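dumping this here before i forget
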Amino acid sequence: MQIILNPRLLASVAVVLSLVGCATHNQRAPVEDRSRSGGSSAASGGANAPARALPGAENAGKPGYYTVKPNDTLIRISLETGQNWRDLAAWNNLVDPNRIEVDQVLRVVAPEAMASGASSTKPIASPNIQARVIDPKAPSSAASGVKPGASGATAAASQAASAAETAKEPAAKEPREADEPNWQWPANGPVLGGFEEGKRKGLVIGGKAGDAVFAAADGRVVYAGSGLRGYGNLVIIKHNAEYLTAYAHNQTLLVKEDQAVRKGQKIAEMGSTDAERVQLHFEIRKQGKPVDPARQLPTR
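structure:
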């Protein structure tokens, strides 16, 4: 059987095949070119886009400013700098105090203090020369009452008696400065752990759940809550421009932020929040730096 092909049909088929081939060829290249173009990368914020400058970056390293570190919160920064966290939020125009970024630079000294040249970031151990009466029991022949020419045995006996007498006296306390509050103990329990530079920032005082926690001096509550990890239910009292105290691990808080408190006022009840046992962790901070409370508190 002989098949006769229509010349017109063959021509139509050839035209259709040619169009299909052109369409297939034209569908691949344009998409790939756009995805590799520099314009597309810039529009989508690619790797070549400039890094965003964090607020306050121009003040990094300057006195009176603080660079945010990982795990920092505004409450922690306020404790480390000795400031009220609400003041920090106001000085830095923070709409949401809970949102700060690592490497963000915050002002931690009042603008008016910066303008006047004052700074609360001066070294804690700044020289403070005070006139003192010389201890008559000091180990010198004149002060110890040993007369020239006395025998060595007499001098030794006199010095030994003087040392014994000195040993009976309580441990020396830091001399009180004009701006230092008149402290009292914040709880009646025994001291379970002492201050350790770089390790423990205060005293650990024992007791039973519900035991009273007292304000160590007159002041104003600048924080009362549980927003600082490791401190549990915490009260922070600011006493003046230099000093604040912190009372941690309470089971109940009896004061609110911005409340004025008096020395000896019951501010909380002892507990074990964020702690392995019932205890009060008590800190005294001067310009944000922890100092040894045992050298500041009165002798029991």
